[in-house]
Write a structure and sequence with these properties.
Blueprint: E1 8-16, H1 22-44, H2 49-61, E2 82-88, E3 93-100, H3 106-112, E4 120-121, H4 123-132, H5 143-154, H6 170-174, E5 181-186, E6 192-198, E7 218-220, E8 224-230, H7 232-238, H8 240-249, H9 254-267, E9 272-278, E10 283-287, E11 291-297, E12 302-304, E13 314-317
Parallel strand pairs: 3-4
Antiparallel strand pairs: 1-5, 1-11, 2-3, 2-6, 5-6, 7-8, 8-9, 9-10, 10-13, 11-12
Helix pairs in contact: 1-2, 2-3, 8-9
Length: 319
């Protein structure tokens, strides 16, 4: 098919404090690049940005290395509750599920809700929807997440957050925090979409709501799309995703919008990261945390941010 525009793609698998060891970095790099390759091939085939975002989220939710879907962290009561959202930039439509349990891919329910008159459902409503759609019951628990929870329970839940990346050793996981997964895509027709999914921050109070199913953490219009990761409360306080997108819509370049938003975040001592695309194909990312686990396809090649120092707060990849 003849492409109207060159598709672009950026994904993330969380943000955190560190990734110890070359083996850890390379394992995450391979996991992310595999997803980028498959999802970008869909965009080249002419799939919509929304379809590509959903597929990318599914792949990341299915990888126990990341804190979403399989491999989600446990809350204070030892239960897994996941949240996810999807926003189609062309229609301006946001949908999501909050604190859903026992499903494999929360993003699938968010996708279904795109065409529903009620587009964001909480735990009870999400469970009822899953039953209505006959979604098979699924246990997302992994041994490593259970070990984390048992260890934290013994320490009386003193850690502020659970691990985001499941490395081979538990200590590795506990050193890489603040987890979600997310995708932002620009398709061959010039349309944008963003999706974000998370298992939460881990060990949180029952009923706590993540930014991942809010416009604060996931937002897209015809002008730009953003997916966030990090401490959800900080993302909500900054209304980060929507702030960046609105600034682009109001005339700032993506670079200017990201830079201004992350300078403000640093001044406010926030702890998070974000990935972004605009309708012209500009790719950007930013972080106030030490590590951002992101990878992208700029239309020519795959790149990532795993060893990006981030001294300038925001990075760009424009082909």
């Amino acid at each position: 098919m003849k492409l109207e525009v060159q598709p672009k793609l950026i994904i993330h698998g969380g943000a955190g404090s560190s990734l110890h060891g070359k083996g850890g970095v390379e394992a995450v790099r391979q996991a992310l690049s595999t997803v980028v390759e498959e999802v970008y091939s869909l965009l080249i085939e002419g799939k919509s940005a929304t379809e590509a975002v959903v597929r990318g989220c599914q792949l990341l939710e299915d990888n126990p290395r990341f804190n979403a879907g399989t491999g989600s962290v446990l809350q204070s009561d030892g239960q897994i509750r996941m949240s996810a959202s999807l926003m189609d930039g062309a229609s301006g439509r946001f949908s999501g599920v909050i604190n859903i349990s026992r499903v494999k891919n929360p993003i699938d329910l968010a996708q279904f809700l795109q065409t529903s008159p009620d587009r964001v459902l909480s735990d009870y409503g999400s469970a009822e929807l899953a039953r209505e759609l006959q979604v098979p019951s699924y246990n997302a628990l992994t041994d490593l997440r259970l070990q984390e929870w048992i260890q934290e329970r013994q320490d009386n839940f003193k850690s502020p957050m659970a691990g985001v990346v499941a490395e081979t050793e538990l200590v590795e996981a506990s050193n890489a925090r603040r987890g979600t997964i997310g995708i932002v895509a620009l398709d061959a027709f010039g349309k944008l979409a963003a999706g974000t999914s998370t298992g939460g921050k881990g060990f949180e109070r029952i009923g706590r709501v993540s930014d991942s199913a809010m416009p604060a953490g996931n937002y897209a219009t015809s002008k730009a799309g953003v997916s966030c990761t990090g401490i959800g409360e900080d993302i909500i306080d900054e209304c980060l995703a929507a702030k960046v997108v609105v600034r682009v819509t109001d005339g700032l370049s993506l670079k200017e919008a990201m830079q201004r938003s992350f300078v403000e975040a640093l001044e406010n001592k926030r702890d998070f990261g974000a990935i972004a695309l605009d309708a012209d194909g500009a790719i950007a990312w930013g972080k106030t945390s030490q590590v951002l686990l992101a990878a992208y396809h700029d239309g020519e090649k795959i790149g990532d941010t795993l060893e990006w120092t981030g001294d300038e707060l925001v990075g760009y990849a424009n082909s």
